[in-house]
Structure formats: structure tokens, C-alpha cells
Amino acid sequence: MAEKLDHFDRALLQTLQRDAGLSQRELAERIGLSQNACWRRLHALRERGLIRHQTVLLDPESLGLGLTVFVMVRTRHHSRDWLDRFREAVVSVPNVIDFYRIAGDYDYMLKIVTTDMNAFDAIYRTLIARVELDTVTSYMAMEAICDRRDLPL
């Protein structure tokens, strides 16, 4: 069930999505609250699970991670044991930055960032060595047009 948010809660969340590095004073000033009121609301939003964690977005290109690959996986196996082994194999690869179970023609989708095609091939070989997959289709991103958007509030 969706959480009820008032104007200040929405403003806090929208502002944090754009810049989670703001000081509490700056955040309070931007949304028109005292620092104490801002702190209480932030604490309540964290307690309610609306703020899971705060992080920093890094530029993959600047870090030598110029290849983004979307990997679509189809499997014949749907047992809990297989899923546990697959999840463990995928999560153990730090280059997999997003991992979803999906509906449609494929069962899973992975977003992988890496240096180049050779590095991607090594990741692919690691995954298929750890768990049996039926079909693996990979799509190389040519350009990130909009790769991280704020959640609509």
C-alpha cells in the first residue's frame, strides 16, 4: 500500500533524490522547515522505510566502465534451489548493478557495467559455469539517454 505523504515529505524526498549530499541545514532551508522539523521528518521517513539508504552516483565512463549490457535470461528451471544458486551466482558478480525477475518472453534481466567486450565475456562465462541457463540474449547499450531518473512523487 502506498504511503501517504504531505507536501513537506514529498519536497524532502524530491530534494534528496536530486542531491542526497545536502546538509540538514541546506535541506531544511530548501523545503521551508526548521532544522529540527526537517530532522524529525527525515527520521520518520527512514523508520517508515521510504528512505532505504543514501548513495552517490558515479560516472561509469570516467571510471573506465564504458560498456553497459542488458542481459535477458530464459531458464527451464523454476525450483527454489535453482533460483537460490542463480541469485548467488549473479549477486557475486559486482559488475551486475541491477537484477530483476520479469514477466514476458524472458525470466530475468541483468544490467551489467564493465570495461569492454572481453570483460563482459568473462562475466558471461562465469555465470554460465555456475548455473544452467536456457537462453541468454545480450543487448549492448550504445548511449545512455536517461539512465537514472528520480521516482515520480
From TrEMBL:
Residue ranges annotated for the HTH asnC-type domain, each copy included? 5-66
Gene Ontology MF terms: sequence-specific DNA binding
One Pfam assignment: HTH_24
Q: Which SMART domains match?
A: HTH_ASNC
A single GO CC term, please? cytosol
Ranges for domain HTH cro/C1-type come to: 13-37
Concerning InterPro entries, the annotation shows: ArsR-like_HTH (IPR011991), AsnC-type_HTH_dom (IPR000485), Cro/C1-type_HTH (IPR001387), Dimeric_a/b-barrel (IPR011008), Tscrpt_reg_AsnC-like (IPR019888), Tscrpt_reg_AsnC/Lrp_C (IPR019887), Tscrpt_reg_HTH_AsnC-type_CS (IPR019885), WH-like_DNA-bd_sf (IPR036388)
Protein name per its UniProtKB record: Lrp/AsnC family transcriptional regulator
The species is: Gluconacetobacter takamatsuzukensis
